Task: structure prediction
Amino acid sequence: MRLVLIGAPAAGKGTQARKLVEYYKLAYISTGDMLREEVSRGTELGKEVKNIMASGGLVSDELIIAIVKERIKQDDCKNGFILDGFPRTTTQAEKLEEMVKVDKAIYINAPDNVMLERLTARETCPKCGTSYNKISLPPKIEGICDACGEGLTQRKDDTLEAGKARLATFHEQSEPLVEYYQKKGILFEVDGLKGVEEISKSIIAELGEQA
Ligand code: AMP
Result:
């Protein structure tokens, strides 16, 4: 199964992706996590994308397509994968289609004002990438990741200013993907304001039980 997740920042893509990965035993590919890793390692690529990411813009199609192309060739992707944060432009979607057949595009739809509230209250584990929310989804112990025990941090682009820019980028560049996948007949839309469990149940109901 090859899935892509579409949604505004903080819509819950990462949270749902992790659940689906576990349920269907798929490879998890988050282009955002991959880029953040490059930034934190201080690589040439990391230096190139650091400021773009911090400001809420998109890195170039060419660069991100090359990264994904290599990643999906790896062994763990043979039984399928979930792409979280890719494609983000129509060009990326077209290139992906040249590489593989996408089975379903899941669109987590949620309003901007709620996304901004969520985003600024979000805490993320820098080690395993799990997201929490100080208000709606707090960790069991304040500031500590339930999954791996690491101290939680706030992403540099989870500020009000960068968040607004990321939402604008989403509407301009990524929202057209909803229609793109709708036309292909593989879009499944879920209401991002529903609870985490309810959303994952509805996605699994759509995709079918474990193969
Ligand atoms: P995310 O963790 O998915 O919110 O991604 C964080 C940031 O990484 C984005 O705001 C972009 O700057 C960059 N990024 C991640 N995925 C892509 C992509 N598919 N195309 C362009 N930029 C991306």
About this structure: The mean pLDDT is 95. The chain has nine helices and seven strands. The radius of gyration is 16 Å. Residues 160-174 form the longest helix (15 residues).
